[in-house]
Amino acid sequence: MKLITICIPMYNESDNILALHKELTKLADFYDTRYKFEFLFINDGSLDDSLDIVRQIAKDDKRINFVDLSRNFGKELAMLAGFDHAKGDAVITMDADLQHPPEIIPSMITEWENGYDDVYGKRIARKGESFFKKLGSKVYYKILGMFSKVPVLPAVGDFRLLDRKCVNSIIRLRESQRYTKSMYMWIGFEKKEVQFTSNERYSGKTKWRLKHLIKLAVNGMISDSTKPLHFSFYSGLIISLISFIYMIYIFVKTIVTGSSTPGFPTLTILILFLSGTQLIFLGVMGEYIGKIYTEVKNRPPYLIQEYFDQIEDDYEDIT
Ligand code: UDP
Ligand code: MG
């Protein structure tokens, strides 16, 4: 019998876990003896009692495993920990807050049985998110598309089913500054879309702050592409060319008319403009150097406090 892992990163989700577990139980009951399930919770340094609740329900539900990270490492790394510990022939990643509707999972499993390796949920509508968040995400995907090497699909997130071979590929990519969305595209394999409408959060507030979103956005643009560097280089070239022509113009003009003082505003504008662009491009390079610095340290991407495993290991042989 095939084993399917449902992998759930959680950070302060104590009010959602029981509701989520109920849904997952329904799902497993629906498949009855056709599949085995593993419910793998990754506790990403929650400050509330999320882990205690999981520990409690794990006593009665032998399908539950969990990994307790040593602190909050962020969702991207929590997911990596999930992929590292998942035992399933397929792994489904979903949020703990029920924004990813579990009723979609059966259609993902069907597509997997049809031979697809990477069945991703595409959000066709979202409930309960502000106009600005929606607009922001639209604009972001447009800009990201211009910069990244492999196209990243808009409105496609981390609600997806991955076949074992995709999981094995993802866990070979060990960088600690991850943008998993572009990794899914990078690994390739047979992909299939399944549409869903995202729900409102069941309980609690989103963990994302603007600063996290900006960090993730920057990561997305430069993690898989050197296009921003090329962009800086070529715009630098064009700006210098224009400045050079302008310089000759000023030079000739001064020689012909003999007066130079009226040029003061132009000078100020030029200096400000040029130093501004230089700072931006230095910043772009700085971003890359910062990433290189973090990666060359070659630290483990996350650390584990405890791995709780109660699923018989003969299932590991299948994988
Ligand atoms: N999450 C996590 N670590 C974090 C932040 C979030 O594991 O540092 C988990 C969170 O518990 C949830 C999922 O990632 O299961 C998505 O988080 P959230 O709902 O806050 O994000 P949004 O749905 O608003 O994008
Ligand atoms: Mg959410």
Automatic annotation (TrEMBL):
InterPro entries, per the entry: Glyco_trans_2-like, Glycosyltransferase_2, Nucleotide-diphossugar_trans
GO cellular-component term (any): plasma membrane
Subcellular location: Cell membrane
Entry keyword set: Cell membrane, Glycosyltransferase, Membrane, Transferase, Transmembrane, Transmembrane helix
GO MF term (any one): glycosyltransferase activity
Methyltransferase keyword on record: no
Main location (coarse class): membrane
Domain Glycosyltransferase 2-like: 5-167
Highest taxon, organism lineage: Bacteria
Membrane-related topology note: Multi-pass membrane protein
TM segment ranges: 231-252, 264-289
Pfam family, one: Glycos_transf_2
PANTHER family (alphabetical): GLYCOSYLTRANSFERASE CSBB-RELATED, UNDECAPRENYL-PHOSPHATE 4-DEOXY-4-FORMAMIDO-L-ARABINOSE TRANSFERASE-RELATED
Family the UniProt entry places it in: Belongs to the glycosyltransferase 2 family. GtrB subfamily.
The protein's name in its UniProt record: Glycosyltransferase family 2 protein
Organism the protein comes from: Vagococcus coleopterorum
Lineage: Bacteria, Bacillati, Bacillota, Bacilli, Lactobacillales
